[in-house]
Specification:
Layout: H1 3-23, E1 27-32, E2 41-43, E3 51-53, E4 56-60, E5 66-73, H2 81-101, E6 110-115, H3 130-139, H4 141-144, H5 151-158, E7 161-165, H6 177-187
Parallel strand pairs: 5-6, 6-7
Antiparallel strand pairs: 1-4, 2-3, 4-5
Helix pairs in contact: 2-3, 2-5, 3-5
Length: 193
């Protein structure tokens, strides 16, 4: 597959995951990395290489809203999905630590790994664990830096990780964009008390 085809699949995947997550009425995801507005950026260390651009960004509609970062993978096989997941976990851990060390407000950021293909099915129940956060930490020193692994921080990050596997058939169960807009008005989830 050419780089252009891969890029187009990624773009389509971002819009697909945005539409599906918003159809749950629990997410408002106005920013897509392809709009190049900087709203999908998460800083995880100092310097120009310390920023990750997620595919989608927005909020989970709680009171107050919680920041959400979505990494979408529209794949037709599980090739490399687990290692890419570990990279995202390392970034989530490093971003949490970066905010903590620098005295930034922790908004409870949630990190969603959305894919169209299952991966690591024989170890599925172990993917969102403290041990996986540690594995990601050990696999990506270039992301997490030189500080020692912090189990307490890893447990916080673990509880903020999501994995979603999307199937084409789920589109049949999803609300349309117009339906979501109508329901948000009724549910008042976007109103902050």
């Amino acid at each position: 597959m050419s780089a252009e085809e891969t890029q187009e699949l990624g773009r389509e995947g971002a819009f697909l995951f945005k539409r599906w997550l918003e159809s749950t009425t629990y997410f408002d995801l106005p920013w897509i990395v392809y709009h190049k507005n900087g709203m999908c950026e998460v800083r995880y260390k100092d310097g120009p290489k310390g920023i990750k651009r997620f595919d989608i960004a927005g909020s989970q509609l709680r009171n107050p809203p919680v920041p959400v970062w979505v990494e979408g993978k529209r794949y037709t096989s599980d090739s490399g999905l687990r290692s890419m997941f570990l990279e995202m976990v390392a970034i989530a851990y490093a971003a949490y630590r970066y905010k903590k060390v620098n005295g930034s407000t922790d908004g409870g950021d949630q990190f969603i790994y959305a894919t169209t293909h299952p991966f690591a099915v024989t170890s599925w129940t172990d993917l969102v664990t403290t041990a996986t956060v540690q594995e990601a930490f050990e696999a990506h020193p270039e992301i997490v830096g030189a500080d020692p692994f912090n189990v307490d921080d890893a447990q916080v990050v673990r509880d903020r990780l999501w994995i979603i596997v999307w199937s084409e058939r789920q589109d049949e169960l999803s609300l349309t964009g117009d339906e979501v807009q109508s329901i948000w008005t009724l549910l008042k989830r976007k109103e902050i008390e």
